[in-house]
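Give me structure tokens for this 151-residue protein.
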Amino acid sequence: MKKAIDTPMPAEPEGPDACFCLAGRRSARFITRIFEAHLEPVGMTSSQFSILSILKHYPGVTVVELARRMEMDRTTLVRTVRPLKDDGCVVEGREKLGRAVTLHLSAHGAKRLDEGYPFWEAAQRDFEERVGKLEAARFREFALSVTSHQD
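Here you go.
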């Protein structure tokens, strides 16, 4: 476990601002707006870009594992993946893992991911400019650490 940084405890906010859920959702919506605006010219949502990226790095991931990596419930994930499958960006694997369905990035999906990458990079820079490069890196590290402490 990482050692906590020796910084004073921030003051406890009052009212709705004290809610961890509200703070997290506000942050998520703020970040999503930035990325959606940048990815819009390539006709891709931030979730779709993330799915294609995960499939590139984890080929043959099951739907259940992809849902876990995306922090989405399976039903929502299936609805999000459907247009990517319809567009030919994502294909189901032929592996036999019981009833589990595996997903792969198609050649067309890899091309779409490559097309979206410069727009994603611009969104990354935009976020860093808005909140500060160091704060953005700390935010990502913290956000990833929160989801790694599940179960």
